[in-house]
């Protein structure tokens, strides 16, 4: 006897990922296509075909109701510990309804203005 299942919603369970280790990152090699190695809290290492590895953080803007992406730099110039610290700072900003991407851009602009004013003398 066969049972026909109608209108039963599928339950999707998020796959739990273990945090990355330096050993796993060093062992990650480029493939034919770009791929990601996920850490925790929305952070991942994008491993590209051209042998570059870029730290990225995916988050959702509460006021814009859409996904956003911010990059923290490339590995090994930016270490795993530095990236986790930057991710934690970004999460704190999000909790305060501050978009980390806009905040980072404002900081860069202020830094540039300070350098321009300082060296003009």
What do these coordinates show?
The radius of gyration is 20 Å and the shape is globular. By secondary structure, it is an alpha+beta fold. It has a four-stranded antiparallel sheet, covered by helices on one side. It is built from three helices and four strands; from the N terminus they run αββββαα.
Order of helices and strands: HEEEEHH
Going across the major beta sheet, what is the strand order?
1-2-3-4
Poorly predicted segments: 8-14
Enumerate how many helices there are, as a single number.
3
What is the averaged pLDDT score?
80
Assembly state? single chain
From the alpha-carbon coordinates, what is the Rg to the nearest angstrom? Answer: 20 Å
Distance between the termini: 87 Å
β-strand number: 4
Give a quick account of the main beta sheet: strands, pairing sense, barrel closure.
4 strands, antiparallel
Give the helix level as a range of percent.
25-40%
User: How would you describe the shape?
Assistant: globular
| Content-based structural category | alpha+beta
How much of the residues is beta strand, in percent? 15-25%
Short structural summary:
The protein has 121 residues and is an alpha+beta fold.
Per-chain topology:
Blueprint: H1 22-27, E1 35-38, E2 43-47, E3 53-61, E4 66-74, H2 80-95, H3 100-120
Antiparallel strand pairs: 1-2, 2-3, 3-4
């Amino acid at each position: 006897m066969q049972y026909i299942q109608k209108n039963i919603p599928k339950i999707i369970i998020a796959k739990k990922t273990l945090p990355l280790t330096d050993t796993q990152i060093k062992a990650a090699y480029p493939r034919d296509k770009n791929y990601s190695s996920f850490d925790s809290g929305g952070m991942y290492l994008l491993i590209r075909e051209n042998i570059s590895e870029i730290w990225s953080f995916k988050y959702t803007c509460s006021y814009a109701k859409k996904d956003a992406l911010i990059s923290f730099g490339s590995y090994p110039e930016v270490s795993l510990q530095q990236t986790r610290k930057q991710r934690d700072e970004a999460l704190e900003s999000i909790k305060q309804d501050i978009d980390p991407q806009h905040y980072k851009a404002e900081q860069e602009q202020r830094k540039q203005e300070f350098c321009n004013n300082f060296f003009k003398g």
